[in-house]
Specification:
This protein is α+β, with helices and mostly antiparallel strands and about 180 residues long. The chain has one domain (about 10-180): Gamma-glutamyl cyclotransferase-like (Hypothetical upf0131 protein ytfp), CATH 3.10.490. About 30% of the residues lie in helices and about 35% in strands. The chain has five helices and seven strands; from the N terminus they run βαββαββαββαα. It has helices at about 20, 80-95, 135-140, 150-165, 170-180; strands at about 10-15, 30-45, 55-75, 100-110, 115-120, 145, 150. The strands form two sheets. A five-stranded antiparallel β-sheet has the order 1-3-2-4-5. It has a two-stranded antiparallel sheet with strand order 6-7.
Length: about 180
């Protein structure tokens, strides 16, 4: 594995939530990718972007699970933008101590294997949670943070994964339930 500052290899970032539809930079490549041993779930309380400290929302995080996998998008950072993009992504993803930055291997849809900078949940942190789908839906339907309604985060993620052919059945079901609650 290479370090994110090792300029001998391209810098890739793995997106599985908002980075799929709002990476904050224009990638040189954006390729569907599969990460083994992790699953995407609403296991992180959002106290900044999709909720507040008083009324936390929920955002997606990668939670370790043997035998699991997560489809997302590997985003190759343009070489000339490597350092600023990494700094900007860290400022966004590490705004609290909920995520841990890891270098994890993914398999791109075209068969290539690359190492990615990936943000995973810190299970020991206060923002980690494991709650049922109905409670997730109730929170997502009502929470609002600095980047808007929590439901928009869910709906955007579901729509963009579907556009890429990476539909996540659990997220689709959750979005359906949230729509029922807000109607």
């Amino acid at each position: 594995m290479t370090d994110a500052h090792d300029h001998s290899a391209p810098l890739w970032i793995f997106g599985y939530g908002s980075l799929v539809w709002d990476p904050g930079f224009t990638p040189a490549e954006a390729v569907p990718a599969r990460l083994e041993g992790w699953h995407r779930s609403f296991c992180m309380r959002s106290i900044h972007f999709r909720g507040t400290a008083e009324n936390p929302g929920l955002v997606l995080a990668l939670d370790a699970q043997p035998g699991a996998h997560c489809w997302g998008v590997a985003l190759r950072v343009p070489e000339k933008e490597r350092e600023p993009v990494l700094a900007q992504t860290r400022a966004r993803e590490l705004v609290s101590d909920a995520y841990l930055e890891r270098r994890l291997p993914v398999t791109l849809q075209d068969g290539r294997k690359v190492e990615t900078v990936t943000y995973v949940i810190d299970r020991t942190g206060p923002q980690y949670c494991q709650i049922g789908v109905e409670e997730q839906a109730q929170i997502i339907a009502t929470a609002v943070g600095g980047r808007g309604p929590n439901r928009d985060y869910l709906f955007n993620t579901v729509a963009h994964l579907a556009e890429l052919g990476l539909e996540d059945d659990d997220l689709v079901a959750l979005a359906t339930r949230v729509r029922v609650l807000i109607d």
